[in-house]
Amino acid sequence: MTTFDPTNPLIVQGDHTVLVEVDGPKYKPARDELVRFAELIKSPEHIHTYRITPLSVWNACAAGVLASEITEALVCYSKYPVPEHVLTGISDFASRYGRVSLSMDDQGLLLSVDDPALAEEISRAKQVAPLLTHRISANEFLVLPVNRGKIKQALIKIGYPAEDMAGYSPGETISFTIRDFTLTGNRFSFRPYQQQAADTFHAGGEARGGSGVIVLPCGAGKTIIGIACMNQLQTSTLILTTNVTATRQWKTELMDKTSLEADFIGEYSGKKKEIKPVTIATYQIMTFRRDREGDFLHLGLFDQRDWGLIIYDEVHMLPAPVFQITAGLQAKRRLGLTATLVREDGKEDDVFALIGPKKVDVPWKEMEGQGWIAKASCCEIRLPMPDDIRMPYAVANRRSKFRISSENPAKTDVVMRILERHKDAQTLIIGLYVDQLKEIAEALGLPLITGKTPQKQRDELFCQFKTGEINLLVVSKVANFAVDLPDASVAIQISGTFGSRQEEAQRLGRILRPKSDGGRAYFYTIVSRDTVEQDFALKRQMFLCEQGYEYHIIQDNDL
Predict the structure, then answer these.
(1) pTM, rounded to two decimals
(2) Would the pLDDT of 43 be above 70?
(3) Do 122 and 201 have their domain in common?
(4) How far is CA 509 from CA 63, 188, 461, 504, in A?
């Protein structure tokens, strides 16, 4: 008979949620196990709530986690007996992964099901049936290669994720080497986890490799992992990024770390339309059209060369039109890079089906413990609303309430007190509302970057910040993604996008690169007390708590 330890932190409930007591001695090892196969959904101070879903289990299976490992972890750390049907459900979820597979033979693209009865059931599903062209045996069907992505989307919607073993076209061959020394003379080699992630993605060139998502914290070098994957494949590559700044950072890193020359790397953006063996484009240009009903003018880039690899940087930002075109690109190797698979539109299953399953997911705190990213302290500072805006707030609708509380003018004084605490630190002041950012920048005499800042000026300011010429910078959400500011050690968030966990991850990531002096990073969020902003701030904590960060809440007069 199994005995249960009252110091165990998990309470596994019948609805597949797991309550986690944060204050116990076994919290950290239990959390490290749990994040491999469950999703955090709620994180107040003492009890966190996770949920085990089919997708969370399928991602675990794709990463090599066995159903037995999941159930053993739950039993090991559970305070009470784990409901039997939950253990059975996990085994059932896991058993569905790989029951349906895609392969390529002389007849074409083959969908195989491991059981004739299941094959019959799947063939009758309204999402799947139109995509099957011919039944060649009791459990095998032919599918048009152009529908390879669509059928994977359809199958995951009915609960049977397909394991895609149909292989990839090699693409146009290119040749380059990795530098032993960067252009600035620093010794360079891939970190062990970077090489391991690339190896996991590549899988020795087998069909099991070549598509999937690598989840690593900001500052861990996801761009370098992309370069490591390119190095293994030596094939023409299309890289999709979030903005022009990220595009140019990719080009800089490629030239700094590899033998690729500038004229071998193209930039495809609003201002340049270069198509080279390695081409870097923005999501914005790929989804540009002249009006809402017009054609997407630049999606043809996917057909401009024989790409052997497509890299989706910040894959959680992948826009719907690029999803659609990706469904038809399943013969290309596809690599997604992100710090968080959380999507605000709930399309995580489409990422799984079209880009690939999660291949690598290293906990942020594990990376911190190994010294690859900076240690971070996260603090929420609550302050009251001034009397003169309490009545406008009281009579506003909920959306207006959020903006009024987010733009609380008293936040400027709190920003100044934080800056006083961290004199001379490389500090980013980050917000959502441009008018608020302008007011703070003008009040403190600081440079400001928003979406309207010309690219040349953005590049100059980012460069001045990186070199230490300036140490304070006010930035809008344009700095959320793929901006390399390695010496930033303090981030002050004055407003954010409602309850976006995704944004919280990206903003914390701006300050997580390891510091040359080994120092700590500090992440502050300023929130108006007893408002809807405080309600949304609770949701924004989720990602940080999931990654193991302690989240302190203080009042402004305690700062």
Answers:
(1) 0.78
(2) no
(3) no
(4) 24, 23, 19, 8
